[in-house]
Amino acid sequence: MKNFDIGKIKKITNQGKLYYDFDEDIDNARNYAFTNCRKYNSDYQMKGEADRNLILDLLGSYGENFVFKAGFICEFGFNFHVGNHVSIGNNFKLIDCNEVSIGDNVQIENNVGIFTSKHAENPQYRADHWVKDLPITIGNNVVIEDDVVIGGGVTIGDNVVVGRNSVIIKDVPSNSFITGNPPYIKPLK
What we know:
Elements: H1 6-13, E1 19-20, H2 24-47, H3 53-56, E2 61-62, E3 66-68, E4 73-74, E5 80-82, E6 86-88, E7 93-95, E8 100-102, E9 106-108, E10 113-115, E11 117-119, H4 123-127, E12 130-133, E13 136-138, E14 143-144, E15 149-151, E16 155-156, E17 161-162, E18 167-168, E19 176-180, E20 183-187
Keywords: Repeat, Transferase
Family: Belongs to the transferase hexapeptide repeat family.
GO molecular function: acetyltransferase activity; O-acyltransferase activity
């Protein structure tokens, strides 16, 4: 049962400004998502199948033909918006303390992490648990290969391939291939 106010949480976390991370509603929302994700993943591992609604009920929105596998973990879920024909591989980790939007026809491979959080640069603020979260947007017709990390504040354009093991902390233009750490961008022809 949901015992938190999504509107209140979004007013705190979705502003792109530093906020104090210890809040009862935030903790309750995290625990609710953790419980649903854990049940889904445990059932999937033990039985080879699980109730997809455990995850779908967490999400802000999702389109047709949304497929996800075992190991799906999210911070809240309600800030996650998924288009049509999206597939997400095993061990997907999502810190969605701000909006994360994924377009249509997107393939996300295994062990991908999408993280909106940026901890305070000031050491005292960090010690006192102040963070800020920046939105992430992934366009249409995108492939994100295995073991990619995407940081907060990033926009990935349309028709992009993100090569495996890449760390993406800056915007990626449409019609490009990006790979590496640090990443190298090459236009697609």
